[in-house]
Amino acid sequence: MLLKSLLPAAAALQMAAAQELMRFGCSQLTIDRIDPLVEPGNMPSAHMHQIIGGNSLNASMKPVDHDPPTVSTCTSCTYSEDFSNYWTANLYFRARNGTYKRVPQFANLGLNVKAGMTVYYIRGYQPNAKVTAFPPGFRMLVGDPMNRQASTMQKGLCYRCEANMQQNPFGGAPCTGQDTQAFPKAACGGGWRVTVHFPTCWDGKNLDTPDHKAHMAYPASGTFETGGACPSTHPVRMPQIMYEIMFDTRAFNNKAEWPADGSQPFVWSMNDTTGYGLHGDYLFGWQGDALQRAMDGKCSGDRCAPLKRQTDQAAIDCIKSQSVKEDIGDGCKLSLSPLVPYIPTLER
């Protein structure tokens, strides 16, 4: 029985090695209502986030003044040269009685971190694929927290309803098969796997743009996976960053607690009940040329000779206290107003 349960984890690791996917875990750094990319300096930001990476995270982080590898003293990622910050919104369960509770995260298959996310840096799927590492100060955003339609979602954002905690049978590549753009509508025996892909073509000039997106683009033809060429306006091919966030929805599978109208009961912290507002933020913070060495060295998995790796416990121990002190919705279900502090009203 144990062997059977380990097979999907082994398959995931073998797939990462065969396709040269640098796949590693990052434990939870903090859960906080700050957003140094979209709302620098605002405390609180419009909605709450779950964040991983370097502990120099703060509400501002100006690209010229803030160099994460220099000012961080630890990282919650297992590769100890990665002081980048990665974040998404928090997921909540809204019960029939009007109370909310945060949906916890758990470690993905084959990884021994605490909550947090799985991060991928992908060089490409062709033996001769080459990419240029992100430069210091680089940051980007994918997705739109205000989006509520499938037709206006960016590429590579999706949800998978896992049948069991072993993710068996394997559901195929992300955002294929039964994966959905909207929140899963069924009770999921193995929780959710939420996937966030970032664009891979850079304009070669801007570390950021006002919308945090215009400096990045998708291949002009084909896809990153097929080796599609970047457009002339964004000629620099970068590693593909992908997040996988595992949400343990099992405690909320009792449909007697779901809304009386039968609608799905989950909501992102920006008050999105559709799932179409899925988005992710990235702020580069690798030390020196570590990421370029990793890509040139065809790193896979969470152990790679060109890189330094810390223990899983060291990553778990790297935490940061909240900048904005407030209840995040753990413990007993909150009996506050349905529009609790960390889930803003539509008018805010």
Features:
5-stranded antiparallel beta sheet, mainly beta, globular, 10% helix, 348 residues
Any overview of this molecule?
The chain is mainly beta. Helices cover 10% and strands 20% of the residues. It has four helices and 16 strands. The chain has a five-stranded antiparallel β-sheet. The longest helix has 17 residues. The chain is globular and about 55 Å long.
The termini sit apart by 51 Å
Quantity of strands, as a count: 16
Helix content estimate:
under 10%
Radius of gyration: 19 Å
Strands ordered across the widest β-sheet = 1-7-14-10-9
Shape label: globular
Strand content: 15-25%
Per DSSP, the total helix count is 4
H/E series: HEEEHEEEEEEEEEEEEEHH
Q: Low-confidence parts lasting 5 or more residues at pLDDT below 50?
A: 1-7, 13-18, 334-339
Q: How is the main sheet built?
A: 5 strands, antiparallel
Given helix and strand content, the structural type is mainly beta
Mean of residue pLDDT values? 89
Quick overview:
It is built from four helices and 16 strands. It has 348 residues and is mainly beta.
Write the layout of secondary structure elements.
Layout: H1 2-18, E1 21-26, E2 30-32, E3 49-53, H2 68-71, E4 85-89, E5 91-94, E6 100-102, E7 117-122, E8 139-143, E9 157-161, E10 192-197, E11 201-202, E12 216-217, E13 236-237, E14 240-247, E15 266-268, E16 279-283, H3 290-296, H4 312-317
Antiparallel strand pairs: 1-7, 2-3, 3-4, 4-16, 5-6, 5-15, 7-14, 8-16, 9-10, 10-14, 11-12, 11-13
